[in-house]
TrEMBL record, chains A, B:
This is TetR family transcriptional regulator. It comes from the Bacteria. GO terms for biological process: negative regulation of DNA-templated transcription; response to antibiotic. It comes from Streptomyces bungoensis. The lineage of its organism: Bacteria, Bacillati, Actinomycetota, Actinomycetes, Kitasatosporales. Keywords: DNA-binding, Repressor, Transcription, Transcription regulation. GO terms for molecular function: DNA-binding transcription factor activity; transcription cis-regulatory region binding. InterPro entries: Homeodomain-like_sf (IPR009057), HTH-type_TetR-like_transc_reg (IPR050109), HTH_TetR (IPR001647), Repressor_TetR_C (IPR004111), Tet_transcr_reg_TetR (IPR003012), Tet_transcr_reg_TetR-rel_C_sf (IPR036271). The keyword Lyase does not apply. Residues 56-75 bind DNA. Coiled coil: none annotated.
Amino acid sequence: MTDAAADSPATPPPSPWERERPARTHAAPARTPLSRERVVEAAFAVLDRQGLDGLSMRQVAAELGVTVSALYAHVHSKDDLLELMYTRLFDGFEVPEADPERWQEQLLDFARAGRQRLLSHRDMARISMAHVPFTAELLPHVEGLLAIFRTAGLPDRIAAEAGGLISTYIDGFVLEEGMWQDRAAQQGGDASSLARPDWREMAGEMQNYFASLPEANFPHLRALSGLMVTDSSDERFDIGLQIILRGLASYLPDQPDRPVPDD
Amino acid sequence: MTDAAADSPATPPPSPWERERPARTHAAPARTPLSRERVVEAAFAVLDRQGLDGLSMRQVAAELGVTVSALYAHVHSKDDLLELMYTRLFDGFEVPEADPERWQEQLLDFARAGRQRLLSHRDMARISMAHVPFTAELLPHVEGLLAIFRTAGLPDRIAAEAGGLISTYIDGFVLEEGMWQDRAAQQGGDASSLARPDWREMAGEMQNYFASLPEANFPHLRALSGLMVTDSSDERFDIGLQIILRGLASYLPDQPDRPVPDD
DNA sequence: TATCTTGATGAACAGCGTTCACTGGATGAG
DNA sequence: CTCATCCAGTGAACGCTGTTCATCAAGATA
């Protein structure tokens, strides 16, 4: 909206110098020109509707009401598009400034927020898994993580691995979440249950399955059947993360309660 | 070799009752009949030669000198084939019997052996990542891991997560290894270097890239440039694993040197 | 007004997973 | 010995995929 038309009462007549959008004598009603951003946006729409396996260039083009080949003017290839989606997913994702006193909470928040981003679009973990975050847009995030580790006092060799370890954990966890979800969706494959697959039911089935295993061969799986697949993944996510965080903490040179380990 | 023909001097005439192999009047020289096993075997051959992206049913069929549709008599679908490859990869993969005194070494060995299996075929981590190990063939491995965790004294909630955590770490690490390898291969894309991509060179390039980042924005990445991508991935793999193991160890109720944590 | 640029078109190519009517050679029965 | 049966493997087809390229209409520029 231009400022020239802002204070006119309603439907101002087109001023000849303003040269408004030509309204396209054709059928297409004033379509906004294609852009890389719009292609990525449409790709997300298709992804959420059809999943990664249903995300084809033709579907994206259809979403935009445009031919396939038109996409290639804005996107180099499908892999390129996926990479754009990947980096765009973490747009505005900020790693907090390192605070040595709160490094564990900061990492917990970071991981939770990262998981939420991955959960915000279907099959996003699969896309994320296929990319190394060493692109120009994602490097600040890596740097931010390293800052937290190093100012917390972790040895450099540990800090260098910790970022990848945590990122891999997040990706892997959400990936597994998605796989359960997909399996639940295609099992109770009615059209009605496609929208919200009955995840609780599938979790119960898995628990029953584990509990039904022969005691002689699978005593531990039976014993933990109630814990392997739980209703809320949030708890499980935090537990795995805590394991990593406590592992990292064990490398801090001066623990408050404990003597320094000589490693 | 039958015992009837064992003591004849050389090229014994075909005894009519023995009904030896009909020797196939046609061109095809006594081709062994197709089988699920042979299909999987051929799929591995194609995978190692062409990578996962080049692994198509048609290529597998060509590897066997057979039409595509012939495969579908032995394999339900391509996904089915991939799952067969996945479970077959861990054929004979034994988790040692749990020894509470050596649980950390046992897990270290397990993880290293798992990584070696994944490295034994190209792109195998990508396939592994797409599968949950809760199939009948892989359940004993899960059980074996749980046994190690529980007899070591880990709380059940921790034990239930530890297996997935370690498996995810192995998969993720090898996946990343493969991605670097692929990138190195397609960068120095000469036919000569395709066989053994110059991995050292690419590692050096990445180190230089990190070291060349602006000091103001990326002090930590610069400082750790020599550690983020190293020549031998083995060290890096062990370090990440040690972080996890020390995290797990922190949940043991009675540490030798330390007071029990109240969690 | 004539030329150039730009963005979208639609047809085409090679390859993909999967299905299905079919066939040719081996097997077993009468 | 002949016939019927069976079955593994065939080849063509369907609809889909990612990608390329000559074409074209329309707006901008000279």
